[in-house]
Amino acid sequence: MATTLVDLPEAELPKAQTPEHHTTVEQPWRPRINPWIIAMTVTLATFMEVLDSSIANVALPHIAGGLGATQDEATWVLTAYLVANAIILPAGAYMTTFIGRKRFYMICVALFGISSALCGFAPSLPILIFCRILQGVGGGGLAPSEQAILADTFPPEKRGQAFAMYGLAVVCAPAIGPTLGGYITDNFDWRWIFFLNVPICLISLFLTSRIVEDPPYVKKQVALSQKGGIKLDFLGFGLLGLTFGSLEFILDKGQEDDWFSSHLITFFTVAMVVAFIAMIWWELKQLREGHRPILNLTLFKRRNFAISFLLMFVLGFSLYGTTILIPQFVQTLLGYTAELAGLVLSPAGLMMMCMMPVVGILSGKVDPRKLIGYGFVMLTLSLVTMHTLNLGVSYGYLVFLRCFQASGLAFLFIPINTIAYIGVKQSENNDVSGLTNLARNIGGSVGTAFVATMLTRRSAAHETNMVRNLTSGNQAFMDRVAKLKGMFGGHTGGNPMTGAGSHTAQAYLYNELHRQSGMLAYLDIIQYMAIFCACMLPLLFFIPRPPKHASASAGH
After folding, report:
1. Which of 266, 272, 345, 520 has the greatest number of CB atoms lying within 10 Å of its CB?
2. Are 53 and 79 in contact (CB under 8 A)?
3. Is-contact 240 90, C-beta < 8 A?
């Protein structure tokens, strides 16, 4: 592996740590404060940030009405946040090298809190969108920083339990967000969605400044990187921003603009591909020249990390895809309110909160590949069971299906993260956390775009197929119209397609046709997702057998 600035030369290591006989002797660092107090401190801000990525969804109509904008214009409130978030996620490890992880984390918390307050006070939509960009930049650095802090704070054998707490934040928050957002907007004002973050940010800043500390290797990285002044890779940042910013824009606006029928979507697709190729070339060039790359692509040489990256993408795809699919299904086809739709998801959040500690304990005792296998089997079975949905489904059955699915998701997040860190040098912990969070973020965006696109297209396909039977040549259709016409006050004699009540009867049938075509589209999406998740199971056989209590330290 090429030497980078994050790896200290042997001459600069203390005598006790100089490699002898090809063995690295490194005293394990442990924080002064109880690790669980540190874990609770950093999870606070991360939970708030992930919650914010979904809480604003249900408030869009209120935001549009309050700021005099259309519903389509208000969706930029979500797009701006996601684009900024995706850009900063992989760059967080790079910034940590120059300013230190604790300082970077606190800057992100402060920026997130200030921008949240500005979002709440925004007098117009353009100002709100600008503030959401700042909020996305601040929020993007929180999750990977927390994950890296936990990886360093806890020994490898307890890392799974630490990731359980982190998993509560990034897995449960999207499920709670719509419910909380619906309650706030229905009972208070949409601006309180943003004001809610401010006191939590202040508490997080205070606790972080008193409790969290950088390990010695991070301090050495900062000292070495600052020699001769801080020299940032502006070209790398530009290519990174253009690649992931364009990707998020395409995924968020693609269905709305009919994908490649739009010149704007086509332009950003070309820009993304060109920027991505240029970014890979530039990052590899930086590595060859011994500079600190923004993206540590050498991690993908390890099979366990490369497969973990893909599995985390699928986890984000499944989690966010179904989190969008279920509320949309119950609201559009079953007539649920936004708050009631959120209550369909909330019990699953409680299920994951109960399961995460159990999985955390098991991850230190059971082969993580077996846990991942169990998780994907349960997730696939839950999606197969969801294929029994119909237009007369009860609230209790919907809650059961979502909890069934959550029982599988809980077994994925922790062991996937555990495998990603195996064999990784301590100095690369930040890179691992940034890339795995990027995979989950992009997976969630792809899942959301997939659900929106397939729902529109499969509904249209089913409707086109079914409408062929609604003709005067179909006796069953004519009999049904005649019966409905009588129910709506028309005369049943003569031509059922004419006279009083005929238009009402036909409108009723078309509405039922629309609902049934939508129902079939949802079943198609569930079927595709089940197949997609089942296809991940063979990948587990390609993951190397993890050593017991595998360390992420150098030398493994």
Report:
1. 345
2. no
3. yes
